[in-house]
Amino acid sequence: MRSRAIFGLDRRASGSLRVDGRSLRLGSVRRTLRSGVGLVPEDRQRQGLVLMMSGRANFSLVILEQLRRRLFLDQRRERRLAQDFFGRLDVRAASIEAPVASLSGGNQQKVVLAKWLACRLKVLIVDEPTRGVDVGAKAAIHALIDELARAGLGILLLSSELPELLNLSTRILVLRAGRLAGELPRAAATQENLLRLMAGV
């Protein structure tokens, strides 16, 4: 729910988000998207994918405006982009036309990531990115997140896995009871320090 509020899906949420120094009021997904913010949700099957649709169709959901040619969808470009991004992320599927319900958890998550990478994003909110995926897929997703951050994309990582936070974060903010409990820069980010903040010690 935290990431959904930041992304604008919870109209009851209050506060603002700053992107490139500009303040963005919460509560509108359209405003958030136009500001260059994407979301990889915690529950990929219910919030990130349409399971009965193909990988290609899921991939293009957030870039339909880019693919539109007058009143029609440029299907040739859509297929080319889907094949390109699925290849870059090593999505293991029979084809881009296979329904995402037939894919493993790790490959489903890669489809979610692929659709956002096709956008011109400034910030990607990634909520529990490796929940329910195998060890191999977890390593691949971690490597991709690290690569995107090094390329200049802002990554807001929300995770309950301490090793994941410690390995990927340049700074960690700890929330407790809905409030900021503290911040750790990478140099001071150890499991002990993190647990102390989480426990309020």
Shape: globular
What is the CATH third-level topology name? Rossmann fold
Mean pLDDT: 89
What pattern of helices and strands is seen along the backbone?
HEEHEHHHEEHHEHEHEEH
How many separate helices? 10
Question: Largest beta sheet, briefly?
Answer: 3 strands, parallel
- Total domain units: 1
Q: Helical amount among residues, as a percent range?
A: 40-55%
What does this structure look like?
This protein is α/β, with parallel strands linked by helices. It has one domain (2-169): Rossmann fold. The chain has 10 helices and 9 strands. It has helices at 2-7, 29-34, 44-48, 55-59, 64-67, 75-88, 105-117, 135-150, 162-168, 191-199, and strands spanning 16-19, 22-25, 37-40, 68-69, 72-73, 123-127, 154-158, 171-176, 179-185. The strands form 4 sheets. Strands 3-6-7 form a 3-stranded parallel beta sheet. A two-stranded antiparallel ribbon has the order 1-2. A two-stranded antiparallel sheet has the order 4-5. A hairpin with a 2-residue loop joins β4 and β5 (72-73). α7 (105-117) packs parallel to α8. The longest helix has 16 residues, at 135-150. The radius of gyration is 18 Å and the shape is globular. The model has no long low-confidence stretch (mean pLDDT 89).
Characteristic key phrases:
single chain; 201 residues; alpha/beta; Rossmann fold; three-stranded parallel sheet; two-stranded antiparallel ribbon
What's the short version?
With about 200 residues, the protein is an alpha/beta fold.
Please outline the helices and strands.
Layout: H1 2-7, E1 16-19, E2 22-25, H2 29-34, E3 37-40, H3 44-48, H4 55-59, H5 64-67, E4 68-69, E5 72-73, H6 75-88, H7 105-117, E6 123-127, H8 135-150, E7 154-158, H9 162-168, E8 171-176, E9 179-185, H10 191-199
Parallel strand pairs: 3-6, 6-7
Antiparallel strand pairs: 1-2, 4-5, 8-9
Helix pairs in contact: 7-8
